[in-house]
Amino acid sequence: MQDKKKMSNYLIPDFTLSPRIDKVGVEERVARFQTRSIKSESKMQALKMALNMIDLTTLEGKDTPNKVRQMCYKAMHLHDVYDGLPTVAAVCVYPSMVGVAKKEVINSTVKVASVSTAFPSGQAPLEVKLIDTKFAVEEGADEIDMVISRGKFLSGEYNFVFDEIAAVKEACGKARLKVILETGELVTLDNVRKASDIAMYAGADFIKTSTGKIQPAATMQVTYTMLEAIRDFNDATGIQIGMKPAGGISNSKLALHNLVMVKEVLGNDWLTNEWFRFGASSLANDVLMQILKAETGVYQSSNYFSID
Q1: What fold characterizes domain 39-304?
Q2: 187 — alpha (psi -120 to 50), left (phi > 0) or beta?
Q3: Binning pLDDT at 50, 70 and 90, where does residue 300 land?
Q4: CA-based, 20 to 30 A from 14: which of 48, 86, 182, 294?
Q5: Phi and psi (nearest 5°) for 214?
Q6: pLDDT at residue 307 in the model
């Protein structure tokens, strides 16, 4: 993995000069991705790939240790009747549940991710956000999903947002940092591009669309804009950044459209769960149904799959 600790080696751009986005052009490109057909053999491979890229998530005030344990079991045993299925990429929980999740997925490939920085609002002092992050890491989190301060961003305080992300990145230690832009609150694709640039130059390992609490969330237009930002950053620095669309991707068809888009914008190097994730727990069951339909010729009832 590339070393991003010394971003001073690169010329950090003036974020007010981030590229403007041609909204009509983006919509035309996205429409083309949605018309691509995938052959049956490639479709099965892509469905299993999508399954392996999912972050199963529970982020509710009523979360309990038992609910987290149940989700972790599903993460490692998606459908025991069918052999050869991968696990999901990670489980994502609040910091208070990281210790529970870590014990459940031990000796597996499933990572434990934790939201932090006063998720989902981000409305807390930096000191509190850093304590939140350090606690999650100390409990065993492999990944941290932080939210940016959208109010500061929309007020034009780009240096504040940059410095906050950089401070949280340092607090992560060895844990990877996913920076959530909450694109539904950023309003324009120009803002999405600007926020993506800030996050990456500040040290993000991943950029992520949404918390899942605000709509619209992971539209393909937003994801495409962020993928282009990742491509440009990689061209400028040689550093590979991950992407995580989250919220609103609930069916296999949309997931496959996203994978086609990733392949064409960024290439095959990003088609692993190290560099691409789906933040969509409900997606897992739909992908499972499509896989079993391809194998057996019939759809299984949703009652055959656990909700969590």
Answers
A1: TIM Barrel (3.20.20)
A2: left
A3: low
A4: 182
A5: -125, 135
A6: 57
* Overall average pLDDT of the 105-125 stretch: 97
Given pLDDT bands bounded at 50, 70 and 90, which one contains residue 16? confident
E strand residue ranges, 117-241? 143-147, 176-180, 206-208
Q: Are 175 and 138 in contact (CB under 8 A)?
A: no
Give strand pairing partners of 56. 91
Domain extents for the chain? 39-304
Average pLDDT of span 217-224: 95
* Residue pair 245/213 in contact by the 8 Å Cβ criterion: no
pLDDT at 65: 98
Length of the chain: 308
Residue 8: pLDDT over 80: no
At residue 83, the pLDDT reads 73
Q: Which residues contact 305 (CB under 8 A, 6 or more apart)?
A: 79, 285, 288, 289
Between CA 2 and CA 115 the distance in angstroms is 23
- 71/308 Cα distance (integer angstroms): 5
Neighbours of 147 (CB within 10 A): 24
Annotated catalytic residues are: 145, 208, 244
* CA–CA separation, 223 and 206 (whole Å): 13
